[in-house]
Write a sequence for this structure.
C-alpha cells in the first residue's frame, strides 16, 4: 500500500471511536477512546488534501431488517434510553469529525505497535517491549518486559503484539527494516518477566483460552514469503507445539484473525480471487474447526462475529461489488447468507471493523475515501467523506 494512504488510514482508525484493531476488545467509552488515541498520533511531514467535508449520499440498506418490538409497559423507558445512547454516539462521532477537520492539511504517523489489554498498555519503548498502566501510558513510568537487543538483530522493531486473555503471556512479532523475516517471542508475565519461547518466520498469530483456562497460541509459519502452515502451541507445564493445518495449494496463503469479540478464531485461506474460511471455537480451541463455505472460484469473503451472528463481507452474486451479509453462527453455509448492506456501484471496500453496536466500513469510490458507520440496532448509517485523492499505485 502506498505509504501516504497507509499512514492516513492508520491515523483515521486510531481516531474514530472504538475503531482500530490494535485494541484488544475492551468496552470503552466513545469519547474517552477518541481523546486518548487522538492525542497519541504524531504529525508527519506529508500533506493531505482537505479531509472530512460534506457527507455524501449513501447507499440504502439492502433490505429492511425487522424492527424491534416493545411492550407498552417497557416502550417509553427503553425509547428514552436508546435516544440517550444515540445522542452520545452522535456526539462522539461529530467530536472526532471536528478534531480531524481542524488539521486538514496534515498527514499522520502512528507510533509503533501498541495494544491495550486489561488495565495495561503494551508497546515498544526504545529497544524494549514494555507495559504501563493505562492512565500512565504517556509518561516514563513503565515496566520492561523484554529487551530486543537479546535477539542480536540489526535495528529490530515490534511489528505486532498480542496479549493472552488472562495476561499470563504476551506475544510480540519482531522484524527489522531491511527484511521481511520475523521472530515471534513469548514472554511470561510475572514479577520478573522472562522469554519462554521464540518461533522464527511467524506471520500472523492469535491467543485463545481452552476449557481448562490454558492459553493456546495459534500462529502461521512463513516460508519464502508464503504462509501455508498453521501451528498451535501451549506453554508452562503442558508445553507443546504442533502443526494444526497445512494448505497444499501453493497459489493460496493462510492468515489468522480473531473476531473482534474473541468468540472465534478464523483461518483465512485465500489467493487473489478466491477464499475459504474455517472457524475455531474460541471457547473450545481443541475441537475440529468448522468450515464456513468451501472455496468457490471467484468468490472472496471475510468473516466477523457479533451476538451469535456472522457478518460476511463478500463479492458473491450480482452486482460483483462487495456487500455485507449475515447469518446465524450455527448455519454458516452460503445458502443461509442474507443480504444486509450494499455498496454503491464501482465502490471498493478497503476494510471492515465490527463493534458491539455498530460496524464500520472503509470505502473507496471515485478515488475518494469514505467511512460508513452502520448502527446494528437501528440500521442507521453515518458517513465521513475524506477528500484525499487516491494514488493509482495503491493496491487492495
Amino acid at each position: 500500500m502506498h505509504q501516504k494512504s497507509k499512514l492516513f488510514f492508520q491515523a483515521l482508525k486510531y481516531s474514530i471511536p472504538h475503531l482500530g484493531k490494535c485494541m484488544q476488545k475492551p468496552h470503552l467509552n466513545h469519547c474517552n477512546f477518541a481523546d486518548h488515541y487522538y492525542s497519541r498520533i504524531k504529525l508527519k511531514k506529508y500533506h493531505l488534501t482537505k479531509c472530512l467535508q460534506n457527507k455524501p449520499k449513501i447507499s440504502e440498506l439492502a433490505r429492511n431488517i425487522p424492527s424491534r418490538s416493545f411492550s407498552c409497559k417497557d416502550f417509553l423507558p427503553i425509547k428514552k434510553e436508546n435516544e440517550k445512547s444515540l445522542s452520545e454516539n452522535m456526539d462522539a462521532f461529530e467530536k472526532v469529525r471536528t478534531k480531524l477537520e481542524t488539521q486538514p492539511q496534515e498527514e499522520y504517523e502512528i507510533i509503533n505497535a501498541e495494544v491495550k489489554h486489561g488495565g495495561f498498555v503494551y508497546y515498544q519503548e526504545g529497544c524494549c517491549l514494555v507495559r504501563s498502566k493505562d492512565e500512565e501510558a504517556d509518561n516514563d513510568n513503565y515496566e520492561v518486559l523484554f529487551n530486543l537487543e537479546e535477539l542480536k538483530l540489526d535495528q529490530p522493531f515490534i511489528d505486532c503484539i498480542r496479549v493472552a486473555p488472562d495476561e499470563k503471556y504476551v506475544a510480540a512479532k519482531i522484524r527489522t527494516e531491511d527484511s521481511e523475516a520475523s521472530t515471534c517471542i513469548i514472554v511470561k508475565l510475572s514479577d520478573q518477566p522472562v522469554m519462554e519461547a521464540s518461533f522464527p518466520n511467524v506471520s500472523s498469530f492469535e491467543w485463545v483460552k481452552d476449557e481448562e483456562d490454558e492459553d493456546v497460541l495459534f500462529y502461521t509459519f512463513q516460508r519464502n514469503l508464503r504462509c501455508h502452515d498453521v501451528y498451535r502451541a501451549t506453554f508452562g507445564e503442558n508445553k507443546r507445539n504442533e502443526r494444526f493445518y497445512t494448505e497444499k495449494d501453493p497459489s493460496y496463503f493462510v492468515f489468522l484473525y480473531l473476531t473482534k469479540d474473541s468468540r472465534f478464531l478464523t483461518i483465512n485461506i485465500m489467493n487473489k480471487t478466491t477464499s475459504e474460511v474455517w472457524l475455531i471455537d474460541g471457547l473450545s480451541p481443541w475441537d475440529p474447526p468448522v468450515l464456513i463455505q468451501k472455496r468457490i472460484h471467484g468468490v472472496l469473503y471475510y468473516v466477523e462475529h457479533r451476538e451469535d451472528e456472522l457478518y460476511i463481507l463478500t463479492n458473491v452474486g450480482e452486482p460483483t461489488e462487495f456487500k455485507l451479509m449475515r447469518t446465524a453462527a450455527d448455519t454458516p453455509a452460503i445458502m443461509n447468507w442474507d443480504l444486509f448492506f450494499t455498496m454503491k456501484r464501482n465502490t471498493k471496500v478497503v476494510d471492515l471493523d465490527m463493534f458491539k453496536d455498530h460496524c464500520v466500513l472503509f470505502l473507496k469510490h471515485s478515488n475518494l475515501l469514505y467511512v460508513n458507520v452502520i448502527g446494528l440496532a437501528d440500521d442507521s448509517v453515518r458517513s465521513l467523506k475524506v477528500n484525499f485523492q487516491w494514488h493509482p499505485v495503491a493496491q487492495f
In short: The chain is about 15% helix and 45% strand. The longest strand covers residues 179-188. Confidence is low (pLDDT under 50) at residues 1-80, 390-396. Residues 72-101 form the longest helix (30 residues).
